[in-house]
Amino acid sequence: MTVRHDHWIGGKAAAPAGGSYLPTLDPSTREPGDEIAAGSPVDVDRAVTDAAAAQPQWARRSGAERGELLHRVADVIDAHAAELMELERVATGKIATQLRFEVEQSAAYFRYYAGVVRARHGRTIDLGGGSHTYTRLEPYGVVAAITPWNLPLNQACRALAPALAAGNAVVVKPSELTSISTVRLARLASEAGLPDGLFNVVTGTGPEVGTPLAADPRVGRVTFTGSVATGRHLARIAADRLVPATLELGGKSPLVVFADADLDRAAAAAVSTVATNSGQVCSATTRLLVEASVHDELVARVVAAVERLTPGVDFGPIITEAQYRKVLDFFARTLASGLRPATGGAAYADGPGAKGLYIRPTVYAGVAPHLPVAREEVFGPVLVTLPFEGEDEALALANDSEYGLVGSVWSGDVARGLRLAERIEAGQVAVNGGPLTVETPFGGYKASGYGREKGIEALHEYARVKTVSLSLY
Ligand code: NAD
User: 421 CB contacts (<8 Å, ≥6 apart)?
Assistant: First the structure.
C-alpha cells in the first residue's frame, strides 16, 4: 500500500495546504514508491513562521547546550541507521556499502559540529587603554537548505549540523525524488529532544517550494547543492534580497596520474569514480589524465576492472528516467562525433541491469579535450581519459574546465604532487588518495560554486560577526 509522507513543520507532521502528493520511484526496479507532500508557498510560509519563532531562544542557549542536543541527533541517526539506509535505498537504489557510508557520515556531521561549537568564540581586539572591543558570532536566523538527490540525507545533514550549531533554525527543501529520509530524520530529531521549529522539512518541487523559500524575507541565508542552472537562479534571488548564499554545484574534476605513481591504487581510484553512485557525484574525478608513457597500460587496467562491475552489486542505478535518457543521449552524440567507447556506452539489454535504470560503466580513451564528453558533466558512470606529457601539460589540462571542485593527483614524487595541488584550480585536492572527510572544508572554484561546507569553515559560514566596542571613560 502506498504511504503518504507529510511535511515536518514546527515539530509535527503537516499535510500539504494544497492537499496533493507527488509520486516517487525506485530506480533499481522502476516500481512506484511512497508519495510525498506536494508543497506550496503556503507550506513554506508556515515553516518559516515556525522556524523564525523558535530560533531566538535556540540562539540564546550556550554552545555546549546546543552541542548536547546535536549529539542526541547523531545518536538517533546511529540508532535508526538500518531504517534510514532502507529509506535511501528505495529512493535511490544505492548499494549497501554506499548507504552505510552516507548514513554514518550523516551522524558524523552532527557529532563533529556538536563538539567544535563548544570551542568557537569571538575575539577581543586590543585598541589600547580606554576601550573594550570584542566580536560576537551571531546566527543569521532562518537558513533555507535546498538539497539534491544524489546523497540525500547526507547533504541535508551537512548543512543542518553547522547551521543549527551556530544557532540558526533551518527549513530544508529536499529533492522531490528523495525526500522521505529527511522527513523521517526531522521526526526522529524531534523525538530526541530537538526543540520544535528548528528543523523543518517542506517537500515538493523547486519552483513551488525552493524558490519561495529562498525568496522569503525572513530567510537570512540560503544554502544550495545542485545544478549550475538552479544555483544561478537561487543566487539571483539571494542577491536581490542581499542575503548570502552557499552554492555547491557541479564538477568535471581531473584525476592526474604520473608514470611514477602507484598504478594499482590510481586505477582503483578511477574505477571508484565510475562505480560510486554510478558517477552521480559532484566531486567525481571523471577526467582521467595519464602521463603518455603509461596511458595505454593504465586504461587497459581500468577497462578490465570496470567490465567486472555488476549492476546492483557494485554500483546502483541512474536516479530518474530523464537522467538515464540524458546519459544515453550523451553516448549517441559522442558516437556521432566519431568517438567509440573503450567499454560501455549503452544500457543493459538483459539481466538484472535491464530491470532498473542501470547504465554500463563507460570509458572513452584518448579523448580530444575539446569534445563535449571531455568538458560537460555527464552525471553518469562515464570516464574520459586524456594522455599528457610532463607536469605543465598535466596542469594545463587539469585546469582546462569551467568547473573547479576537486583535483586528485597520483605520483611517486610527493613534491610534484604538492606542486600540482598548489596550482590546480579547485576547492580541494587529494594527493595519492589523501582523505577528504567531515573535518575538511569542501566547496568550489569557478562554476562549481562558492562558500564552504564541512570543517570549521562551515560553522563560520552560518554565523555573522558583530563588533561591540565600549568606551571605558
Ligand atoms: P537541481 O538543481 O535540479 O536540484 C537540486 C535541488 O534544487 C532540488 O531540491 C530541486 O528540487 C531544487 N530546485 C530545482 N529547481 C529549482 C528552482 N527553480 N527553484 C528552487 N529550487 C529548485 O540538481 P539535481 O538534479 O538535484 O542534482 C544534480 C546536480 O547537482 C549536478 O549538476 C551535480 O553536480 C550537482 N551536485 C553538486 C553537489 C556539490 O556538493 N557540489 C552535490 C550533489 C549534486
Answer: 407, 409, 429, 431
Calculate how far, in angstroms, residue 150's C-alpha sits from the geometric centre of ligand 1. Answer: 9
Taking alpha carbons only, the member of 144, 198, 154, 206 closest to residue 175 is 206
* Active-site annotation holds for 277: no
Is the CB–ligand 1 distance for residue 150 below 6 Å? Answer: yes
Tell me the three state secondary structure of residue 97.
helix
pLDDT digits (tens, 9 = 90+) for 71-99: 999 999 999 999 999 999 999 999 999 99
Between helix 96-116 and helix 81-92 the angle, nearest 10°, is 130
Where would I find the H helices in 245-386? 263-275, 292-307, 321-336, 352-355, 372-375
Identify the residue whose cell numbers are 551571531: 138
SS3 436: coil
Please tell me if the CB atom of residue 454 comes closer than 6 angstroms to any atom of ligand 1. Answer: no
320 lines ligand 1 (CB under 6 A): no
Contact 278, 314 (CB under 8 A): no
Judged by DSSP in three states, 144 sits in strand
Give the strand pairing for 169-173 and 199-201: parallel
CA-proximal residue: ligand 1, atom 16 (nearest)? 206
282 is catalytic: yes
Residue 316 cell numbers, joined: 546502483
What distance in Å separates the CA atoms of residue 380 and residue 364, rounded to the nearest whole number?
Answer: 13
pLDDT > 90? residue 352: no
Name the grid cell of 343: 567499454
